[in-house]
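step 3/5: co-fold with flavin-adenine dinucleotide
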Amino acid sequence: MSSIFDSGNPADLEPCCGCGICAAVCPIRAITMKMNSQGFFTPEQVPGKCNSCELCTRTCYRFINTHQDESSPLPHIEQGAIFSAFSNIPSIRQESSSGGVAPVLASVYLALGYRIGGVSYAADEQIARYCFADTPHDLVALSGSKYLQSFSANALREFLIDKKRRYVFFGLPCQIYGIRRLAKINNAIDRVLLVDLFCLGVPTYHLWHKYIAFLKSRGHIDEVVEPKFRDKRTGWHTFSITINGINKNYSVKKAKDLFFAFYLRKNCICDACYGCRMRRDSVASDIRLGDFWGPAYLHDNQGVSLVNIITDKGAAAWERVRSSITTLQQHTAKDMFISQPIDRIRCPDERFSVMKLLADPSIPLEKIASTYIVPPDPITVFLQRSSRALRRILRRLRP
Ligand SMILES: Cc1cc2nc3c(=O)[nH]c(=O)nc-3n(C[C@H](O)[C@H](O)[C@H](O)COP(=O)(O)OP(=O)(O)OC[C@H]3O[C@@H](n4cnc5c(N)ncnc54)[C@H](O)[C@@H]3O)c2cc1C
Ligand code: SF4
Ligand code: SF4
Ligand code: SF4
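step 4/5: write tokens
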């Protein structure tokens, strides 16, 4: 084997998730991350540079067994200790996507001298970008989920050359899997805490950019300075997307929003997300965070986090932040699966057509929506809900 570009049979490999780990690890910058025609970040080879050192294939999840971590298997998601919790500080809970456990972990570890890795919105390029926070002020930009694929190669290179400082990394399961590999290669595993998120995939940038064009064409916004993908002022379950521009701000409930209409139908997420095992099987992080959806907190309107403590390091971190967090109760793995339906994401039949239309710059978003985003009829909704309930019952009956 040599580089990711000439190793393995493409038909046998899992799709690229765009995590940027290969570009970060390549010591001679023979890989750059570019946005591909599908609207996802993907590695490109710099011609004539590769020296076949194999570092990229030793790090990329597509070339190794993701269930193995060197010699020992990674813990399974069911093995963690599961809690429902939220931040004691109401404003932190309000500004975050779920219960605000991520910002509490971030600020406690920042005060301990760690650098905090997470994702901010880069208004200059209209993308999500992985970056580090070194001050409480920097942390503000990391708060809240940006439901986009983040560009991470540059930040991860910074980590690789740093042989001293301690880090907490927040990210999606595929990113955290790769960051764990980077930390191992860099002999840095003892100075990192890894926190990943439950994940329903990332949508193509063609959707996000067409959505911005749509809002501008309707006069709803002038620019996108600061999008808030989960604005809980209208409730946690019934959240809104709010876009702060220069002179105009826009806000609409998720149920009426075109970006979420496409994203939640999962008809334009990355190829890698449909079969992704990192989101549902073995876990590479110390702690996994998400929303405690489902019946348990149906009437909560401020947000409850699902906290899954995976490793001893995660348990120590949890002890450190516990006094800043209200823990509601400990839950079983069954409760977690009711809250988080982490079965394989089904690829809708319409995906091919939707992706093709989204990639065509001449077709406006509302035109695509008029064909693919029709309100579901009540019978379909009933059948979908029944089949989901049946799947959950079968899963619980499974030995
Ligand atoms: C693309 C995506 C899909 C998700 N899917 C689910 C899901 O299916 N079920 C579920 O329960 N939870 C999901 N989450 C996680 C959830 O939205 C919250 O991020 C999580 O519960 C932490 O919330 P919090 O209140 O503790 O803190 P928050 O303040 O909301 O913290 C968010 C954290 O996520 C990081 N982050 C923000 N955007 C990104 C990004 N694009 N990529 C990587 N990291 C990012 C931030 O740096 C910060 O550390 C998803 C998040 C993202 C970004
Ligand atoms: S999955 Fe990540 S590491 Fe592998 S080729 Fe794609 S961007 Fe590179
Ligand atoms: S130089 Fe090494 S890390 Fe870079 S592309 Fe070639 S094999 Fe991969
Ligand atoms: S579903 Fe998997 S591949 Fe897709 S963004 Fe989430 S962790 Fe990454």
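step 5/5: annotate
Residues 2-3, 25-26, 28, 30-31, 50-56 surround iron/sulfur cluster (ligand 3) (CB under 6 Å).
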